[in-house]
Amino acid sequence: MWKIAGIELESRLFLGTAQYRSPELLRQAIAASKTQVVTVSLRRQSKALHGAENFWSIIQQSGVHILPNTAGCRSVKEAVSTAQMARQVFNTNWIKLEVIGNEHTLQPDPFGLVEAARILCGEGFSVFPYTNDDPVVAERLLASGCRILMPWGAPIGSGRGLQNEYALQILRDQFPHTPLIVDAGIGAPSHAARAMELGYDGVLLNTAVARSEDPPRMAKAFANAVTAGRLAFEAGLIQAKQKAEASTPVLGTPFWQQDNPGSPL
Amino acid sequence: MRVVVNGEPREAPPHVSLLDLLRTLDMEKPYIAVCVNMSCVPKFQFESFELQENDEIEILVPYQGG
Amino acid sequence: MNKRAAVVGAGVIGSLMAWRLSKSGWSVDLFDQDEQPTRNCSFAAAGLLDSVGALEDAEPLINELAGASLEMWASIVKALPEPVFFQRRGTLALVHSNDMEQLDQWEHRIRRLNPTAAMERLRGDALFAIEPEIDRRFQEGLYFPLEGNIDNRALLRALHRQLRHLVAGMHFGTHVENLSIGTVQTATATRTYDQVIDCRGVRASAPGIRGVRGELFVVRAPDVAISRPVRLLHPKQPVYVVPRSKDTYVVGATQIECEDYSPVTVRSTLELLSAAYVIHGGFGEAEVLESVTQCRPAFNDNQPRTFFRDGVLHVNGLFRHGFLVSPKLTELACELLEHGTLAPQYKPLETEATRCA
Known about the structure:
The complex is a heterotrimer of chains A (about 260), B (about 70) and C (about 350). With about 260 residues, chain A is of the alpha/beta class. Chain A has helices at about 25-35, 50-60, 75-90, 110-120, 135-145, 165-175, 190-195, 205-210, 215-235, and strands at about 1-5, 5-10, 15, 35-45, 65-70, 95, 125-130, 150, 180-185, 200-205. In chain A, α4 (about 110-120) links the parallel β6 (about 95) and β7 (about 125-130). In chain A, α3 (about 75-90) crosses α4. The longest helix of chain A is centred in the C-terminal third of the chain and has 21 residues, at about 215-235. The relative contact order of chain A is 0.13. By secondary structure, chain B is mainly beta. Chain B is built from 1 helix and 5 strands, in the order ββαβββ. Chain B has a 5-stranded mixed β-sheet, with no helix packed on it. In chain B, β1 and β2 (about 10) form a beta hairpin. With about 350 residues, chain C is an alpha+beta fold. Chain C contains 8 helices and 20 strands. Chains in contact: A-B, A-C. The interface of A and B includes residues 20, 40, 46 and 85 of A. β4 of chain A pairs antiparallel with β5 (about 55-65) of chain B.
């Protein structure tokens, strides 16, 4: 069990709900992943409600916590008003804050992000900021009131995994008491496991499951990977070394069997 | 009077409440959010909120997202 | 005395059901709310028969139904009183060089699901030998030699024309207010039947159906000579260009999880038409004849189904695969009607869809 934003969770895997080929695959993937938190967005209502109703039912029936996002927002004003509306719709103070700065890389606009975070934290939101791996930006976000950080692994939807482990490790070291969740760019369960091995508290992913060949199966793979990675972190990984070290003890082996240039024979 | 709902002009009775308008549109649902003239209206105010001529109403619903 | 059936909905499913049942000796009444059924998916469709390409995001059973249906379309078209454009000369799938992984992924996925699928990876001259006019920026693509396309509107017209002679009653321009076991109620009459069959797509009484919005364009492009359907693969918005008749092409289609019939949006317009332009610069001078919006009927898993519910036979959930599988699916629906059950390998078509709303 772990604690985040005022609740206790079993699962450290958060799942996005976009890009599934059918609503049924979404439903099955949520179940198979054993996730307890999914991200959703808001859109303008068109004439018929049925699509929204169906989606809403799936989410409600899966019993997960909802983390609304400000996807598509390119300004502070947009992000803030979307967050306020999301609070109405979903009855939650949680908000995944995305303020995009570049259309091609879809990377966060750190200045807009910090400003929007400041406003929203001031209004009592529990902000989950999607950010880059820059510790200065991280510092500013925490100073604005954020209690959680969600640095990227790689550009959204790219499936490239952890592009800059060094930077992610620095963030982990510099903010040891802040829940850190890798969000964006994860492609394979091994990436998720790696993030967990680094000591990250959770991972958020969408494309890696939704666009895989068999989303429910992939969701299960990710669930296993996140569990494995966390267990490994808690179990204490061995250090990587420069040279070989035999696992079998050599004491007691006759010296003429040892591969030792200093031996008399 | 004339109001605009999600970009579409509509006729509504003068001083109609937001809640009543939603009801006539069959959009009184637990999962919607409403903005009037770019300002979010909290759910508990739907009944007391009176609409004015040419008000621009945006109704938002949950959708898939990452 | 013949058994009497009511088929409600004269899209491709309802029309083929009425056709089959009449030929098997049923006395059939066919209903449609429109005088000229044009406000339905069958009219809006592009007529792309992508039996292999559809594997990419559909269950293998669709592939099987599609393969059988392609054969059946040939006989159906032959039996109709007026010519209907139908070809099996293959289709192409192309990508931007930036999106080459899409092509790899498509190919890989299809091969995994069907190792013997008729699919070839073509490069350079081999590709242009198939369609000489596609833009030279495309140097690599997938060719599906056994796929094809049909002029769906011509098919429906010809089928309806023949049905006028085959069925007992054509009730077009007749809105069905209520249907139930053995009964169809309209504004002017309540009629009784041995079997009522609901083929109304999104408007059917089938439980668990949702509408999935699609937008497409019909354009006239005399500067373009593409003879086969061409698909441009794209992670977010794949586009196809399907030749319908001389100089006329269908460019489509978006897929939006919303039951919304409002006009085509600017974004969708840009996405679809710029893709067509990229495939062949001649589309730049094309005339937009129609912009079309429709909602595809789909169950939660996007798979088609045929089943009895409260005594009414339903055939629904065709999603993007109406013309692709309707000949075989309607044959199976008739089998279900005759025998009360489907052969084991088709049982999935009868299963109840999971329902949420």
